Amino acid sequence: MVSAVDIAGLLVIVGLNTAIAALATRFFRVRLNTQWGSALYAVVLTPVPLVGTTILLGSILGPNLGSASTVLAITVLVPLAIGIAFDFFWMPAPDDVSVPDNRRQRT
């Protein structure tokens, strides 16, 4: 039987992984000038820290989900999809955001 502590731990892991996925996707969108490059990097490189946080926090907070494929699906793939969707569909494009120029002029 699943306890409330197990559910809370799973929600912490999923929430943290979603935030990491959204921030990594935004980082790739800002740094890369191509449209497909940022999406490719987000899908290929972002799961690496997600698996790392799942291993670290899963040993402390995570419940027994039965199999490794279930753990990867719930704690890596779902947050990756939500984080990428959050950045691509809800956040404005990096080109649409005006940023003030704070560089000092040297004389």
What does this protein structure show overall?
The protein is mainly α. It has one domain (4-93). Helix content is 69%, strand content 0%. The protein has 4 helices and no strands. Helix 1 (4-31) runs antiparallel to helix 2 and helix 1 (4-31) packs antiparallel against helix 3. The N and C termini lie far apart (70 Å). This is DUF7991 domain-containing protein. Residues 1-103 form the DUF7991 domain. Keywords: Membrane, Transmembrane, Transmembrane helix. Pfam families: DUF7991.
Helix content percent band: 55-70%
The coarse overall form would be elongated
Number of strands: 0
Radius of gyration: 17 Å
In terms of per-residue confidence, which ranges show pLDDT below 50 for 5 or more consecutive residues?
Answer: none
Q: Tell me the series of helices and strands, N- to C-terminal.
A: HHHH
Distance between the termini: 70 Å
In percent, how much strand structure appears in the residues?
Answer: under 5%
Total helical elements: 4
Specify the structural class: mainly alpha
Total domains: 1
Largest sheet: none
Mean of residue pLDDT values: 88
Keywords: Membrane, Transmembrane, Transmembrane helix
InterPro entries: DUF7991
Transmembrane segments: 6-28, 40-62, 68-90
Protein name: DUF7991 domain-containing protein
